[in-house]
Design a protein that fits this description.
The chain is an all-alpha fold. The chain has four helices and no strands.
């Protein structure tokens, strides 16, 4: 098996990963291995199929510009 060393991770990222590992009752190393293995399993065809499905769901629909709503929300 290969090994990977990741340098210069922000402390906040490491904290979040440790919390995630604890929630899954795994060590940090086990959690990182699981994350990387899942990421490597994903393929482009599956992702594109998901995007196409969402596009079909919203085909023909129009949406208004939400920038005004966002500005009002930020002004609160």
């Amino acid at each position: 098996m290969g090994q990977v060393l990741v340098r210069n991770l922000h402390a906040k990222v490491v904290r979040k990963l440790k919390l995630r590992a604890r929630r899954h009752r795994r060590s940090l190393q086990e959690e990182l291995r699981e994350i990387l293995e899942e990421a490597a399993k994903q393929n482009t065809a599956t992702a594109r199929a998901s995007v196409d499905q969402v596009r079909k769901m919203f085909a023909g629909r129009t949406f208004r510009d939400s920038s005004e709503l966002i500005q009002r929300d930020r002004a609160r």
